Amino acid sequence: MNKRWRIGVVSYFNTQPLLLGIEKADFISKIELVKDYPAKIAQALIDGQIDIGLVPVAITPFLNNPHIVSDFCIGATSKVASVAIFSKVPMEQIESIYLDYQSRTSVQLARILLKEFWKKDIQCLKADADYIQSIQGTTAGVIIGDRALANLTEFEYVYDLGEAWIAHTGLPFVFATWMSNQPIPDEFIDLFNQANAYGVEHISEVLAQLPARTHDYDMEQYYTQNIEYRLTDHMQEGMRLFLEKVKQLAP
Q1: Which pLDDT tens digit goes with each residue over 50-101?
Q2: Where does CATH 3.40.190.10 sit in the chain?
Q3: What number of other Cβ atoms are within 10 A of residue 247's Cβ?
């Protein structure tokens, strides 16, 4: 523990259980936490600006020496709630779709499901910071994270991507894992796993630290039913299948 580790983490509601344990851990004074949205954390890991990151699994091929460094992740074994296609019209009427710039994995997942599950060949649009207000008519949009939870009641049609992946493949989905671009000492991995486990096992503490009113979604349900934090062998099977499908996508 002589090295000061730079750790990148996404500042969404879904990471709060993992963050709670890390911020309460004895090693907190020996690490530097960098908080941002998924694509930014991913790029920081690729560029060597951080040592470990909670990153979208879709960046794995872009890492020179990828290592999964924790038994914990952000995944789903059922409806995930915070990653979905939002639309004013049903799927069969959608003609174009904005792809959320904040996460590579969710964008690639949407492209795979549109092609294989919904059998749609539609125009993909690059989203800017204000793209949600442009989701109108036959133009849909992928929204992730806190903004997805906040918009669940704002659109007539919401297509949950975690739920769709499971219906399509029969496997769970992993959105993000703790990864490094170098080997990490076992001593630190053990401490890191213990820290992650603490937050996941103390959801009541996480709920107590949330703002008095976030939005109308049941956050206890979100943490205990929508998000799967344990990176099991079955979860990794789903992750491997996803990465195989990403390779088959056109650039």
Answers
A1: 999 999 999 999 999 999 999 999 999 999 999 999 999 999 999 999 998 7
A2: 5-75+174-241, 83-169
A3: 7
Q: In this predicted structure, what is the pLDDT of residue 199? A: 94
Structure tokens at 15: 């990471």
| CATH code, residues 83-169 | 3.40.190.10
Considering the domain 5-75+174-241, what is its CATH architecture? 3-Layer(aba) Sandwich (3.40)
Nearest 5°: the CA angle 229, 234, 240 is 100
Conformation bin of residue 123: beta by default, left when phi > 0, alpha when psi is -120 to 50: beta
Instruction: Tell me which amino acid residue 206 is.
Output: V
What DSSP character marks residue 25?
A: S
Instruction: State the amino acid at position 219 in one-letter form.
Output: M
Q: CB-based contacts of 174: which residues, under 8 Å, 6+ apart? A: 57, 73, 74, 75, 231, 235, 236, 238, 239, 242
C-alpha span between 41 and 58 (Å, rounded) = 13
